[in-house]
Amino acid sequence: MSTATVTETPSSTDRRDEKPLGGRFVAGAANYIDERTSISGLVKELGRKIFPDHWSFMLGEIALWSFVAVLLSGTFLTFFFQASMVETHYAGSFLPLRGVEMSAALDSTLRLSFDIRGGLLVRQIHHWAALVFVAGIGVHMLRVFFTGAFRKPRELNWVIGFILFILAMAEGFTGYSLPDDLLSGNGLRIIDGMVKGIPLIGTWTSFLLFGGEFPGTQIVGRLYTLHILLLPAILVALLAVHLMLMIVNKHTQFAGPGRTNSNVVGYPMMPVYMSKMGGFFFLTFGVIVLIASLFTINPIWNYGPYDPSPVSAGTQPDWYIGFADGALRLVPPHLEFVLWDRTWSFNILLPLGIIGIFIVLVLIYPFIEAWVTGDKREHHIAQRPRHAPTRTAIGVAGVIFYAVLWAAASSDIIATHFHLTMEGVIHTLQALLIVGPIVGYFIAKRIAIALQKKDREIALHGYESGRIVRLPGGEYIEVHQPVDAYERVKLVDYETNAPLVVRPNDAGRIPWHENFRASLSRWFFEDRLVPVTQSEVEAAEAHAHHTLEHIDEEENLELQGMHDRAGVPDAPHHPIDDGSRSETAVRSSNIIVPDDEPKKD
Amino acid sequence: MAHEEDALEHERASWKPSSGLAVTVDDPVQNPGLPPHRERITDKDPAAMKRAVRTVYTLFYLSLAGSIWAVAAYMLFPIESGQIVDIRHNNLFIGLGIALALLAIGIGAIHWSKAVMSDREFIEPRHATRGRDATREGAVEVFRAANEESGFGRRTAIRGSLIAALVASILPGITLFRGLAPESSPENPIAGDPVALLSHTMWKKGERLAHDPSGRPIRAADLTLGSAVHVIPASLADLSHHDGYLEEKAKAIVLLMRLLPEQLPAEHNKLEWSYDGIVAYSKVCTHVGCPVALYEQQTHHLLCPCHQSQFDVSRSAAVIFGPAARPLPQLPITVDDEGYLVAQSDFTEPVGPSFWERH
Is the pLDDT score of A13 beyond 70? Predict the structure, then answer.
């Protein structure tokens, strides 16, 4: 903890006569609690803990606070919802559905929407907050991935965070299925069909899950138990571990002036982050309530009760399930056969397997990269994505893969909206699923390397300011604005990775896994830039200074020649500056590098 | 960035983590340290500070107003009429009040922290995450002593039997989950057999085809050329939800279409399953079980709206596009004495999505 932070806590010993901080009652209460919990240690330890500041560190907070909104609104809903599939006849106040036979689940959902004041609002808050929750986790994960914030010592927290993502999707799906309306019933029908396609255990898993044949009378009650008890309990427990590990590891920070791998620079928990984070909770919650009051979501009263027969075209699942639904749609026909008297449904297994592999790869990516680099040090500087081109490219490929699956979930909408053929859309997406990530990989990698080169150029030679200046000799030059040292540290990297050179071990052999690791490391690090060094910076500065002087000198000679020819050798070289001629090339604060001159010595 | 002065790498005598493939440059760009603190307008100008403070408490009062408005809206906009417009107003005005209350607190608090609170940055050193050497040794000693005193590592008989017992103790719990689905009983001999259940529907010889959902039987003569009718078994209407109405319906739904007799594949032995160009196919998709509800009259194609599998009715509902693998099962139909369409038998194969035991 910084030295400056200690002064904040009043030392009661030498100021005994003064009124205690916060008044007698607060002091008494604090004392009461501390004598029973020793909480003062926790406050002293965490109260002035330093957190670094960056807008992208706020993305995880969106997930956290929308989850709180989900919990609060969901608790309210449990007081009214009945997780039962017993048939009733709707007798609530929504006229079009009066007398319709439906399950108690849908009946109670309609009643809490239409017969409880504000009930619809809370239901919409719950649904919108759930969508924001999963999205918040998603963008937070992308931030962590692309900045390498999953590196040691944070690999385990990546795994926990990813499990939270899966749990959030499971929460979303179980919640979506609870109202027992037409759409959720069709969603369950799809799940049932997928489960049945799993070899060996599929038929019985579906049978046990639904308590008999689909749809049965059990599934809503069972999903409800998962939705409000089992999954939230695991979610809250893992969330607590996730946040505790964040405090233990301390938050990563971006490179910058004064910011190193062995410190944290930022603002203290109290009061700045307490106010900022607390305020952000209200902001997140407020935005969700605003959306919920303005936009209808999941109007179950338009869908009616579940019936296996009708279905409406163009219905969409909640956004986070889209990628799985899209995977089902992109499967080519006839991938199913009977072998050994059993049905092998590869039209189900293929998408399940691909999604499974994708999930596992994302889950274990930190360990793959750690194995390739062999780097066992702690990393607390969040990398800029351009400084790890291969990782960034892999991430982009993954994002495109996911995005194509996601878009495929709307293949019918795409076809109808853009007047395309269904088959054309599917075939295009099938091709994109394979070609897209590959193309995206190479483009992203090249862009990352190009950006590194640009930063290198800027760190050494400054920004192209866009100011074109004509020298007296007729020569045009562009003024380069140098970066100051505080800016420069944000641009440069400090180390790079070199591909592994394999060497025989003691037995004189090169084991296969070392060869594999070497080829992976070549893939990762073959294209790389050597980081800028201090001596390069100094050389560049000296060179710029030299150029500046040189131009100055030439200009003076030329001016002197003109003055001589005009017969006024004593005239000043610089016009008297009345303030209107600020666009002058030769200013000590500008480094001038003519563009046609080679920049390297 | 591994500077020489990196505290993380030097605070543990025994800890020299490998840098792997990382190549550190010899003279990295020097870090100039924290830039000089730049005062904000609120630090320099007391009037600006006063304005910022006023903004913050105005926002908090605004939040108060929002909360009061939300409570008022709860009372002012009743929904008891059941009119959708009243529900919409109730939703909108309570929501706007709460949103204002929350957003104003949020914006106020963040403005407070950014404009009013000190913006001086602090530096906190990091320490290696691993415990100090002495602590780690202490932890190892704890395990060593516990192992020594219990004999956990030494007494293999105890250890092995404990592990076996612990693993086995999970099994009863798993077994209990068989109760999630019903067992077969004398009244219902196939209730506990998912394969048998999936293999039968309520269609049987002489069962009339009826409109879905009215249950009105269909006369072959009433069916015009090119029409498609959603069909359920006539006796489904007699079932209540307690008798498995939805479960039976989920398997028995059928789509009935009338084509020209010559448009049906003549060589096919299933021709006798149709009646004068009228064919009946299961409406449950063979992919994952959505209702294949969209019929295109001109091309005789059936489209599943869930995953876009397409079936060609003029080719025995064979799959022509999409993820489905099998044709839709055909229901053999004929007419009875009164001219009503009836089933010749149940489906001759399980309907709906594939499952492991299907063959």
Answer: no
Which helix (H) or strand (E) segment holds residue A456: the answer is helix A422-461
Residue of A163, A165, A166, A161 whose CA lies nearest to A246: A161
B92 band by pLDDT with thresholds 50, 70 and 90 = very high
Is the Cβ pair B22, A290 closer than 8 Å? no
In tens, the pLDDT along B104-146 reads 999 999 999 999 999 889 999 888 888 888 889 999 999 999 9
Using the predicted structure, report yes or no on whether residue A70 has a pLDDT greater than 70: yes
Looking at beta carbons, which residues of chain B come within 8 Å of A217?
Answer: 241
CA distance A366 to chain B (A): 15
Q: What is the DSSP letter of B234?
A: G
Question: How would you write A271-338 as a 3-class SS string?
Answer: HHHHHHHHHHHHHHHHHHHHHHHHCCCCCHHHHCECCCCCCCCCCCCCHHHHHHHHHHHCCCCCCEEE
What is the mean predicted confidence (pLDDT) over A244-248? 92
> Are B21 and A312 in contact (CB < 8 Å)?
no
Between CA A427 and CA A431 the distance in angstroms is: 6
Is B6 in contact with A260 (Cβ distance < 8 A)?
yes
Q: Does B113 touch chain A (CB under 8 A)?
A: yes
Query: pTM of the predicted model, to two decimals?
Result: 0.89
The pLDDT value recorded for residue B266 is 67
The β-bridge relationship of strands A463-470 and A381-382 is unpaired
For residue A243, pLDDT over 70 is answered with yes
Q: Least CA distance to A382: which residue of chain B? A: B1
By the CB < 8 Å criterion, does B79 face chain A? yes
User: Which residue, A459, A477, A456, A460, is CA-closest to A468?
Assistant: A477
Rounded Cα–Cα distance for residues A242 and A238 (Å): 6
**Cβ contact, residue pair A94, B21, below 8 Å:** no
Sign for the CA dihedral angle at A40, A44, A45, A49 comes to positive
- Find chain B residues with C-beta within 8 A of A222's C-beta: 180
* Closest chain A residue to B322, measured at CA: A333
**CA atoms of A277 and A271, how far apart (whole Å):** 10
Phi, then psi, of B254 in degrees rounded to 5: -140, 150
- Contact: B123, A289; criterion CB under 8 Å: no
Percent pLDDT > 90 in chain B is 31
The pLDDT score that the predictor gives to residue A68 is: 96
Q: Chain A contact for B161, CB < 8 A?
A: no
What ipTM describes this predicted complex? 0.90
Q: Scan residues 281-310 of B and list those with Cβ closer than 8 Å to A.
A: 283-285, 287-291, 293-294, 303, 305-310
Identify the top-confidence range among A34-43, A410-419, A491-500: A34-43
The β-bridge relationship of strands A495-497 and B22-24 is: antiparallel
C-alpha torsion sign, points B303, B308, B309, B310: positive
Q: Among A134-138, B15-19, B200-204, name the one with the lowest average pLDDT.
A: B15-19
| Chain A contact set for B324 (CB, 8 A) | 333, 347
Q: How far apart are CA B221 and CA A364, in angstroms?
A: 64
* CA of B156 vs chain A CAs: smallest distance (Å): 32
Which residue in the set B33, B95, B177 is minimally distant from A292, CB to CB?
B95
- Give the distance, in angstroms, between the CA of residue A121 and the centroid of all CA atoms in the same chain: 29
Minimum CA–CA partner of A421 in chain B? B308
Proportion of chain A above pLDDT 70, given as a percent: 92
How large is the angle between the packed helices A512-525 and A346-373, nearest 10 degrees? 90
Q: Please write down the long-range contacts of A105-110, taking CB distance under 8 Å and 24 or more positions apart.
A: A105/A81, A105/A178, A105/A179, A105/A180, A105/A220, A106/A179, A106/A180, A106/A181, A106/A300, A106/A305, A106/A306, A107/A82, A108/A80, A108/A81, A108/A82, A109/A81, A109/A178, A109/A179, A109/A180, A109/A181, A109/A300, A110/A300, A110/A301
